[in-house]
Amino acid sequence: LPAGGASLRLCSTRVAQEGINKPVVDRIIRVDHAGEYGANRIYAGQMAVLGRSSVGPIIQQMWNQEKDHLKKFNELMVAYRVRPTVLLPFWNVAGFVLGAGSALLGKKGAMACTVAVEESISEHYNNQIRTLIEEDPEKYKELLQVIKQFRDDEQEHHDIGLEHDAEATPAYSVLKTAIQLGCKAAIFLSERI
């Protein structure tokens, strides 16, 4: 025992969970972890195809931010004791295929994918922010800060995609709609499974 008889307590990465709405927090962290995991796989696929092209450094920059997002959600999964979605192996493959497939359409195709995904994710994060504010903004202060920052990063990626001619992709609106339907399905499933 240290001087004075006080006991040593090891630091914990767990968050005090008194008073939180555990089902809501679990659902938010699980789906956001899955989304950031999928985003990492999308950018990995894009880099596999376009990494050495003129747009490679831009894709890498966005991917680096997504890696930071995933790292933070990995930490939050442990801190809040949230299990990951069982669909991660599927998102691993689906994300890479989406990224590589869109990149095979060229720079514009990759950027169209980025716009579609990041618009969906920004909207998703906004819905979560509203939910947590309705619950109790003070109680969820840390989680709100994380989600707001990541939402802003995703919006920046969206804007980068537009700046790099995403809308000039052949059949842009069809591609964007298909990708966003896939995102909605992924969000729905990852929240629950």
TrEMBL record:
<keyword id="KW-0472">Membrane</keyword>
<dbReference type="GO" id="GO:0005634">
    <property type="term" value="C:nucleus"/>
</dbReference>
<comment type="pathway">
    <text>Cofactor biosynthesis; ubiquinone biosynthesis.</text>
</comment>
<dbReference type="GO" id="GO:0010468">
    <property type="term" value="P:regulation of gene expression"/>
</dbReference>
<dbReference type="GO" id="GO:0006744">
    <property type="term" value="P:ubiquinone biosynthetic process"/>
</dbReference>
<dbReference type="GO" id="GO:0046872">
    <property type="term" value="F:metal ion binding"/>
</dbReference>
<dbReference type="InterPro" id="IPR011566">
    <property type="entry name" value="Ubq_synth_Coq7"/>
</dbReference>
<dbReference type="GO" id="GO:0005743">
    <property type="term" value="C:mitochondrial inner membrane"/>
</dbReference>
<dbReference type="Pfam" id="PF03232">
    <property type="entry name" value="COQ7"/>
</dbReference>
<keyword id="KW-0560">Oxidoreductase</keyword>
<keyword id="KW-0479">Metal-binding</keyword>
<dbReference type="GO" id="GO:2000377">
    <property type="term" value="P:regulation of reactive oxygen species metabolic process"/>
</dbReference>
<keyword id="KW-0831">Ubiquinone biosynthesis</keyword>
<dbReference type="InterPro" id="IPR012347">
    <property type="entry name" value="Ferritin-like"/>
</dbReference>
<dbReference type="InterPro" id="IPR009078">
    <property type="entry name" value="Ferritin-like_SF"/>
</dbReference>
<protein>
    <submittedName>
        <fullName>COQ7 protein</fullName>
    </submittedName>
</protein>
<keyword id="KW-0408">Iron</keyword>
<keyword id="KW-0503">Monooxygenase</keyword>
<dbReference type="GO" id="GO:0008340">
    <property type="term" value="P:determination of adult lifespan"/>
</dbReference>
<dbReference type="GO" id="GO:0008682">
    <property type="term" value="F:3-demethoxyubiquinol 3-hydroxylase activity"/>
</dbReference>
